[in-house]
Amino acid sequence: MAKAKRIFSLLLRLLALGATLSAAIVMVTSHEKAKFFAVSFEAKYSNTPAFKYFVIANVIGGVYSFLVLFLPPKSMLWRLVVALDVIFTMLLTSSISAALAIAYVGKKGNSQAGWLPICGQVPKYCNHVSVALAVGFIGVVIYMLLLLYSIHTALNPLLV
Amino acid sequence: MAKAKRIFSLLLRLLALGATLSAAIVMVTSHEKAKFFAVSFEAKYSNTPAFKYFVIANVIGGVYSFLVLFLPPKSMLWRLVVALDVIFTMLLTSSISAALAIAYVGKKGNSQAGWLPICGQVPKYCNHVSVALAVGFIGVVIYMLLLLYSIHTALNPLLV
């Protein structure tokens, strides 16, 4: 039973690793050149601080998931892992929310602030970013499940 | 000892209640009329979806903190509270990150996307929003401490 639980949790961590790293890679590779009237510009993730933060957070989350895979099952560090899961879930939640907020302005604009949507000019870039955000969202959901699962298994013996 | 822990945790929840509700109130009351060339406009939180989300998340977080204050110490529901703390901490983290991302564009603009900063036109509004975000940030930190503390107290008996 304990072994099945361990395999399930490792599987979730592998999925989390895949999702966070894919999100970072898709975001980094998103760029498109466009002409707006006479001005040619290149849309890329590094122009937007929120997208840079998204990439950094997902790389950190991926590296953390990778390291945890090699933690021996009996290690005392597993206690720390629950606390670290909280920190990294918050980091990923924060990064995807910031990126989504900016992507929303990119798609819809904000007429009161005079910010025009840019997705009409750079549709390929926008699609690329959307995919990165969708994959990043899956990563956050997996992290949340992992955290709730850790809390569940940690609290269960106390209540039986 | 158990009583001291309980008082400490209730105190944190009271602080969280205060911080989340203050953040929501400060954000809701932020507005400023300004003239930009010939166009007069009013900057208010409800023009920005991310700020609306911030207000809603903080009100939900505040109501949750309030309800938990009345939970009897021996209730079985405390087990659920740890899981709910995870959910609400993520909700607040997400809302403040989205609001901060938009506030950053409001302050600095994004020249590649052609989004101009608006804080020069509506400085009072910007200050008001900054205060709301700072108070909201304190709320998130208190929630994170609460969560790490709950996890610590829940896991401790297992490891002694």
UniProtKB/TrEMBL annotation, chains A, B:
Signal peptide residue numbers: 1-23
Keywords: Cell membrane, Membrane, Signal, Transmembrane, Transmembrane helix
Chief localisation class: membrane
Key word Transferase present: no
Membrane topology annotation: Multi-pass membrane protein
Residue intervals of the Casparian strip membrane protein domain: 4-141
Transmembrane segments annotated in the record for this chain: 50-71, 83-106, 131-151
Cellular compartment(s): Cell membrane
InterPro entries registered for this protein in UniProt: CASP/CASPL, CASP_dom, CASPL
Classification via Pfam families: CASP_dom (PF04535)
This protein's GO CC annotations: plasma membrane
Family per record: Belongs to the Casparian strip membrane proteins (CASP) family.
NCBIfam families with a match to the protein in the record: A_tha_TIGR01569
Subunit details: Homodimer and heterodimers.
Listed name of the protein: CASP-like protein
Lineage: Eukaryota, Viridiplantae, Streptophyta, Embryophyta, Tracheophyta
